[in-house]
């Protein structure tokens, strides 16, 4: 065990008003000298993502209202994209989210009440959101949709749409599985009854013509049970040769389950995060379908800025697809650094 | 329980006073809190052995035991607390809280992960103390106090993680010092024959054994039953009620920390939205295992069997290959069966 290198300078440094966290860290390291890790941990200095210039257009307020389930890495990417665009466009971004459709609709109403200049929303449950969207349009506030609502955004008078169609993405995954020579595929739904996830697996079932697809429900709030359930399924049906996860953390857990069950099935997934990039590099996960959540958040905000300042609509009335793109060993290096920064 | 004096009606003489009556060994066994659960567990086990061929393999048992163990370790703390007459709704997110705190403290302060874990233990015990202290000081039911804690911890898990790491999951700490040894303690596997067993199963059995000893053979065990049965009488005969209850909440904090450490070292990073809803799984395990919702009654062995039933039902459905759309329904039906079996068995045994 090695001592922390900056021991001696600890007192002098804190006098120079180091950030409290660092000071506390040094104090802790000093008191429990053997307790420091010389490997890993937070980088000493970090640089913040992409730093384009800033627009000098009048400051506008945009509300982004999603159906995010709190604490999911996927939504974090969306939000980062939105924040990057807002910072660049001189926009005040008001982000709010609620997974329950009625609550999400209420959030839209409060955005209308506070007279924002534009609204970006997700339409996971389009019917429930329709009245709120109409109210916004009636109040003269431009609305764009992203991430979900591919089938219904246009009917509701939403101007633009950025995202992927989950069924098409699922079909693309299914087609690739057929090419990969899969015979028996397991599609894992981590939130039973969630529309987007169900459509992905439905798409996989439709697109995969080389054999049969089976669906498995797991509880993503309890990772040990996710691991055990996938293990159980692999033990129950040794003929499963491909596992399709619908989120990066589930894919990484499936890799573990595979080892437990002694199965040599291939793991593939939808959506990425930084840990998944390593798994694709090492070959634990074969490929991921990327719908580019950062891009969805970014375009949603940026498109409103374009509309407010220049009357443009991206896509000109047709949906703008951000996916499905495949990430595999052939292109992983190109995006690895961005993923490490938490923007892919 | 038999309350009538045993009368020999043919001779009209009292054979024995009911208070000093010796129970038959079989009956003493049958009225134990966990016996109904054991009966339910056996039925469910046999049932899945019949309907799900892969369930019969030792590998399947290892998987079921692992799924049961992480629920089971928490259920020990939760059942003791329940026997002591209190509830804790913050347990699910408290597990996530412990692992997030350990990970972030170690990562951001460059500490050995063991030290990070130790500091997280202090925080976890602190949450337990906070719950216990408020319940005892304010006399507000623990249901409401811990519901508030549940919400606050959910918020802390998300907000603090985001504030510190800039994203909603913690960074991987797998390359930090102490990780490998900590992983051996909290999240490793060992082989018995060809079957790989997770170490949490051992911890689960060990903690159950220790807590059973404490509950059945020590003064503290008596105190726990006493404060759960009747708090005022307990206080009147000199039981330190406040200390016992705060201690129980803190023990729940310890269990949450332990499971949290397993999560951290098994999965390297922690998503901050985890754990919501798991508090019910722990309570379910305790209740199936014979703990009464009103307190003063139950065992940790029962909670162990309860967790095992939940694990079996959860994974057995997968081994049976049933239509996944019905998954939750089957799970619910299975648990309902276990609880009813438990309940009716107990009342049947008590009447005899």
Strand percentage of chain B lies at under 5%
Indicate the radius of gyration of chain B in whole angstroms: 22 Å
H/E order of the elements of chain B?
Answer: EEHHHHHHHEEHHHHHHH
Biggest pleated-sheet summary of chain B: 2 strands, antiparallel
Question: What is the approximate shape of chain B?
Answer: globular
Organism (chain A): Rhodococcus sovatensis
Pfam family, one (chain A): Peripla_BP_4
Subcellular location (chain A): Cell envelope
Protein name (chain A): Substrate-binding domain-containing protein
SSE topology:
The complex is a heterodimer of chains A (344) and B (352).
Chain A: H1 10-15, H2 20-31, E1 60-66, H3 73-88, E2 91-97, H4 101-113, E3 118-121, H5 126-138, E4 143-146, E5 160-163, H6 166-180, E6 184-189, H7 195-207, E7 212-217, H8 223-236, E8 242-245, H9 248-261, E9 266-270, H10 274-282, E10 285-290, H11 293-310, E11 320-321, E12 325-328, H12 332-340
Parallel strand pairs in A: 1-2, 1-3, 3-4, 4-5, 5-11, 6-7, 6-8, 8-9, 9-10
Antiparallel strand pairs in A: 10-12
Chain B: E1 6-8, E2 13-16, H1 25-30, H2 35-51, H3 58-83, H4 91-109, H5 113-138, H6 142-165, H7 179-187, E3 189-192, E4 195-198, H8 199-217, H9 219-229, H10 231-236, H11 241-267, H12 278-288, H13 300-320, H14 327-351
Antiparallel strand pairs in B: 1-2, 3-4
Helix pairs in contact in B: 2-13, 2-14, 3-8, 3-9, 3-11, 3-12, 3-13, 4-5, 4-6, 4-11, 5-6, 5-11, 7-11, 8-9, 9-11, 12-13, 13-14
Organism (chain B): Rhodococcus sovatensis
Function (chain B): Part of the binding-protein-dependent transport system for D-xylose. Probably responsible for the translocation of the substrate across the membrane.
InterPro entries (chain B): ABC_transp_permease
């Amino acid at each position: 065990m090695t001592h922390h290198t900056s021991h001696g300078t600890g007192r002098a440094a804190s006098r120079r008003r180091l950030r409290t966290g660092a000071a506390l860290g040094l104090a802790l390291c000093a008191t429990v000298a053997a307790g420091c890790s010389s490997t890993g941990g937070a980088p000493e200095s970090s640089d913040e993502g992409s730093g384009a210039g800033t627009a000098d257009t009048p400051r506008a307020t945009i509300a982004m209202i999603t159906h995010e389930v709190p604490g999911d890495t996927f939504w974090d990417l969306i939000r980062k994209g939105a924040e990057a665009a807002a910072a660049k466009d001189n926009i005040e971004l008001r982000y709010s989210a609620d997974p329950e459709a009625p609550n999400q609709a209420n959030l839209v109403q409060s955005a209308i009440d506070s007279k924002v200049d534009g609204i970006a929303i997700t339409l996971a449950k389009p019917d429930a959101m329709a009245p709120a969207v109409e109210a916004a349009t009636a109040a003269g506030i431009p609305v764009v949709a992203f991430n979900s609502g591919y089938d219904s955004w246009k009917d509701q008078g939403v101007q633009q749409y950025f995202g992927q169609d989950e069924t098409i993405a699922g079909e693309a995954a299914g087609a690739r599985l057929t090419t990969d020579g899969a015979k028996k595929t397991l599609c894992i739904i981590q939130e039973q009854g969630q529309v987007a996830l169900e459509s992905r697996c439905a798409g996989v079932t439709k697109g995969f013509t080389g054999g049969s697809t089976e669906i498995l429900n797991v509880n993503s709030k309890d990772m040990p049970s996710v691991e055990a359930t996938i293990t159980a399924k692999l033990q129950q049906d040794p003929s499963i040769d491909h596992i399709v996860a619908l989120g990066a953390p589930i894919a990484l857990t499936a890799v573990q389950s595979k080892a437990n069950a002694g199965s040599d099935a291939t793991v593939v997934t939808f959506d990425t995060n930084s840990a998944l990039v390593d798994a694709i590099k090492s070959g634990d996960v074969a490929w991921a379908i990327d719908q580019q959540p950062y891009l969805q958040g970014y375009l949603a905000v940026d498109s409103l800025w374009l509309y407010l300042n220049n009357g443009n609509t991206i896509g000109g009335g047709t949906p703008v697809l951000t996916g499905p793109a495949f990430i595999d060993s052939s292109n992983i290096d190109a995006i690895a650094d961005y993923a490490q920064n938490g923007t892919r | 329980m038999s309350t009538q004096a045993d009368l020999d009606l043919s001779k009209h003489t009292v054979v024995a006073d009911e208070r000093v009556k010796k129970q038959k060994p079989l009956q003493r066994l049958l009225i134990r809190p966990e016996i109904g659960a054991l009966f339910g567990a056996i039925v469910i086990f046999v049932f899945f052995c019949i309907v799900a061929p892969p369930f019969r393999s030792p590998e399947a048992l290892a998987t079921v035991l692992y799924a049961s163990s992480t629920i089971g370790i928490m259920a020990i703390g939760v059942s003791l607390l329940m026997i002591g007459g209190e509830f804790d709704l913050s347990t699910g997110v408290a597990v996530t809280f412990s692992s997030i705190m350990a990970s972030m403290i170690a990562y951001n302060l460059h500490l050995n992960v063991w030290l990070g874990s130790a500091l997280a233990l202090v925080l976890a015990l602190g949450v337990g103390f906070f719950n216990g202290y408020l319940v005892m000081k304010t006399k507000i039911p623990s249901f409401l106090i811990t519901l508030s804690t549940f919400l606050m911890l959910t918020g802390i898990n998300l907000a603090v993680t985001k504030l510190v790491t800039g994203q909603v999951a913690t960074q991987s700490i797998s390359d930090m010092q102490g990780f490998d040894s900590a992983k051996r303690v909290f999240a490793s596997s060992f082989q018995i024959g060809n079957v790989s067993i997770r170490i949490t199963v051992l911890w689960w059995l060990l903690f159950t054994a220790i807590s059973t000893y404490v509950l059945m053979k020590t003064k503290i065990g008596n105190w726990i039953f006493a404060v759960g049965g009747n708090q005022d009488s307990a206080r009147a005969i000199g039981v330190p009620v406040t200390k016992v209850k705060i201690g129980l909440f803190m023990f729940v904090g310890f269990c949450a920390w332990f499971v949290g450490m397993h999560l951290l070292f098994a999965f390297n990073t922690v998503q901050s939205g985890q754990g919501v809803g798991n508090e019910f799984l722990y309570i379910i395990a305790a209740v199936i295992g014979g703990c009464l919702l009103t307190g003063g009654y139950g065992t940790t062995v029962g909670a162990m069997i309860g967790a095992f039933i939940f694990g079996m039902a959860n994974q057995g459905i997968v081994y049976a290959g049933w239509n996944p759309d019905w998954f939750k329904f089957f799970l619910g039906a299975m648990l309902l069966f276990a609880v009813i079996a438990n309940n009716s068995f107990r009342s049947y045994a008590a009447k005899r």
